[in-house]
Amino acid sequence: MTTSLTALLPATERALLTRIATAQSAGRCPSLVAGVAREGELVWTGGRAAGGGDDAVETQYRIGSITKTFTAVLVLRLRDEGLLDLEDPVERYLPEAGLGQVTIAQLLGHSAGLSAEPPGPWWERTPGALRPELADVLGEGAGTHPVGRRHHYSNTGYTVLGALVAAVRGGTWEEALRREILEPLGMTRTSVLPQAPAAEGWAVHPWADVLLPEPSEDLGLMTPAGGLWSTVADLCRFAVFLAEGDERVLGASSVQEMRTPSVPLESGEWNATYGLGLQIIGDREHTLVGHGGSLPGFVAGLWFDVEDRIASVVLANATSGPNVSAVAVELVRTVAEAEPRVPAPWRPLTGVDQELLALTGPWYWGTYSYVLRLLSDRALELQPIQGAGRGAVFLAGDNGTWTGQSGYHAGETLRVVRREDGSVRHLDVGSFVFTREPYEPGAGVPGGVDPAGWRGVPDPAQG
Asked: Name one Pfam family in it (predicted).
């Protein structure tokens, strides 16, 4: 019997609807919409509104700082095209910023030491015309913390990155966004200015069930930090891209780099960190990646689980109310727990390199026991047989070596060391020697092996 691996079960859909209905009611927001994508497809949408309507999958909401992730993608594209390096100082491209040796990577990871907000009036409620120059955004006291020493979230930093994209491309940030991300991904309902149908932003009185309309300003230079409007459908499409990559926009290795922690954890936030334009939260079972956003009148959350291939987006039109990022995370986990991912079928390799096959099986680093497995595309997996250990997958290179992809061995080289007769002497993994037997004599163990070999405890009765 064949069943769909993407469509959700009715009980799961009911659980998702119940969660967003609770969030809209308890959070007291005029409307709340959500969507879930699984295995690369939008599989569920839902909404709740004070007026009773719930069909808002194509209604635009302001997404606030989720915009930063779009800006980060544009910067990574410039890097991948060889137009800049993430370790370059920003002033190489924007000397008017006056940021000294602050690097592009530090801006992406919020470790540049810049202040969180620009000087002057509350920028989210002030027309962009009041910030015509980059100097007006940075001000005189932009440096708040030592450069590179700690994570300090900075809207001004992403404004600088937006200006960087414009300077290197020779156009505007908005033009680059539309041409390089929105059009290739088919995100036709994402824009800098609202396009009908679009939700109106509201403030809800904290102690009475009454509303106050919020202004919707053109944020000018601050737009790359938080100015976009989008929909549940478009953002679910964007989340799938961030999980899998798309060569038309950014390859899988570069989006994986965005999802990799780039800054130290903050005290008290040991389960959360920041990559390059993406927030990262996790526990022992799951790691979720995404971003939250807010502007007066709106809150937004986009989160995805790469391993389970589930993404969720939640949007609401209230200045404060439900924690929509937390709701989005709960939607992801609801689907993952109610409908665990069905593993892909095991298939044997097509074609086998006999020399690589001969490398498989047990290996020993000192007395630690490991097993080496052969994967597809000549990749190798080294894992501890028992207890804790430094396991990793190593991808094959063009020079007869392999490169580690995670954990302690990420970026480290695995090579096969052979004797003069061509037989394998040992494996070298970042200078660690792995032998076929624990401390095998003649296998190149640093410091040598005691010629007397292994021994037991002397028998006192024969002493």
From this structure: DUF7586
